[in-house]
From TrEMBL:
InterPro entries: DNA_helicase_UvrD-like_C, DNA_helicase_UvrD/REP, P-loop_NTPase. PANTHER family: ATP-DEPENDENT DNA HELICASE SRS2, UVRD / RECB / PCRA DNA HELICASE FAMILY MEMBER. Residues 3-71 form the UvrD-like helicase C-terminal domain. This is DNA 3'-5' helicase II. Keywords: ATP-binding, Helicase, Hydrolase, Nucleotide-binding.
Length: 81
């Protein structure tokens, strides 16, 4: 959806929007949910890159952020510590 709209997201309607963390940069939402943190970094990204991307995603939230993970990974271990 974001690509079809040239990465512009309308905030005039109440709706649930699914975006990648890459395309969410610069946007803000009242609530952000990031699922599957244990899966980040499985395509060769470094832990530092995954931490930066997670930071971008979490800071899109103006009121609440929900993070979930289902497996232990270097990223999850670093975030828990």
């Amino acid at each position: 959806m974001a690509k079809d709209n040239r990465n512009r997201v309308s905030i005039k309607r109440v709706a649930v929007r699914f975006l990648s963390m890459h395309s969410a940069k610069g946007l803000e939402f009242p609530c952000v949910a990031i699922a599957g943190l244990g899966l980040l970094g499985r395509h060769g990204e470094t832990v530092e890159e995954c931490v930066r991307l997670t930071y971008v995603g979490v800071t899109r939230a103006t009121h609440e952020a929900l993070l979930t993970y289902s497996s232990e990974s270097a990223l999850v271990q670093r975030l828990i510590a």
